[in-house]
Amino acid sequence: MKLTRRNLATLLATVPATVLASGAAATAQPPTAPADDLKAARDRMQQNAAALDKASIPVATEPAFQFKV
Fold first, then answer.
1. What is the CA 69 to chain-centroid distance, rounded?
2. Per-residue b/e over 16-42, b at no fewer than 16 CB within 10 Å?
3. For residues 43 and 66, what is the distance between their CA atoms, to the nearest angstrom?
4. CA separation for the pair 20, 25 (Å, rounded)
5. Which of the 8 DSSP states describes residue 28?
């Protein structure tokens, strides 16, 4: 399916209106406590770090750069 920029803009403009009209926004989950959000963010960071540790990138792939002060 080929989407033009105009079709995509039209689609994105109509989706929020249809969601609000259907009442899906009213059935959203209640807000969570900040402590729960913090724990979830930390868990995601640990999962991402573990996934990055599993991937090995050869040194030749990494770009050469210098930090200058």
1. 33
2. eeeeeeeeeeeeeeeeeeeeeeeeeee
3. 32
4. 6
5. P
CA max distance for the chain: 56
Which residue is it, tokens 């969601």? Answer: 19
Place of tokens 């750069």: 65
Instruction: Give pLDDT tens digits along the chain (69 positions).
Output: 677 888 778 877 777 666 666 665 556 666 778 888 899 999 999 999 999 888 887 777 766 677 676
Q: Whole-angstrom Cα distance, residue 43 to residue 1? A: 37
